[in-house]
Amino acid sequence: MRDTEFMRIGARLFTEGLVGGNFGNISVRAEGGFYITRNGSYLDDPGNPVFVPLEGPVPPEASSEYRVHRQVYRSTRHNALIHAHPPYTVAASLVYDEIVPVDIEGQTFCPIIPVVDGKPGSEEIARNVANALCLSLVTVVKGHGTFASGKSLDEAFILTSLVEHSSHVLWLVGDLQGDTE
């Protein structure tokens, strides 16, 4: 079941252009830890997820972003987490300290999307993302990508897609193009 769920959500992320190649990762909370995609795996065909305990050694085949997922599960009640690289949202993160959608869907479901700093794979990014996800369901790491959480992978996927839609709308209305008057 978990393998097919990871594959289904990964394929949707890839098809919608929210990830490219082997970028991004997916996880789901489990008793005593979580299952996460393998390091370097393609999300549309991720293979078997790897179990990572909340404490103790991490299997070497786990995604390089396991620190973020581990800290989020330690700090929140979220059951699923998706890390994607949606291009319009990454662009917005380079312009704003927080993304404020102008479209109705974005305003309704993600009225303010925090942007945090951190080097990929570091304890800093883990701490900053987990802190942001204590207050929000989705955050963006500046110049890197989104981390969307939820009760399920479907909920985290919807938020990932919604944030990218809102960022695309910002670009279409000129807010990301550096227009000055």
Describe this protein's structure.
α5 links the parallel β6 (113-116) and β7. Strands 3-2-1-4-8-7-6-5 form an 8-stranded mixed β-sheet, with helices on both faces. α3 packs across α6 (153-172). The mean pLDDT is 93. It has one domain (2-172): L-fuculose-1-phosphate Aldolase. By secondary structure, it is of the alpha+beta class. The radius of gyration is 15 Å and the shape is globular. It is built from 6 helices and 8 strands, in the order αβββαβαβαβαββα. The relative contact order is 0.17. 39% of the residues lie in helices and 19% in strands. The N and C termini lie far apart (54 Å).
Structural class: alpha+beta
Given the C-alpha coordinates, what overall shape results? globular
**How far apart are the termini?**
54 Å
- The third-level CATH topology is L-fuculose-1-phosphate Aldolase
Keywords:
alpha+beta; L-fuculose-1-phosphate Aldolase; 8-stranded mixed sheet; 39% helix; globular
Briefly say what this structure is.
The chain is α+β, with helices and mostly antiparallel strands and 181 residues long. 39% of the residues lie in helices and 19% in strands. The model has no long low-confidence stretch (mean pLDDT 93).
Question: What secondary-structure arrangement, pairings included, does this model have?
Answer:
Blueprint lengths: L1 H14 L9 E6 L2 E4 L13 E4 L12 H10 L4 E5 L2 H9 L2 E2 L4 H6 L3 E4 L6 H11 L4 E4 L3 E6 L2 H20 L9
Parallel strand pairs: 6-7
Antiparallel strand pairs: 1-2, 1-4, 2-3, 4-8, 5-6, 7-8
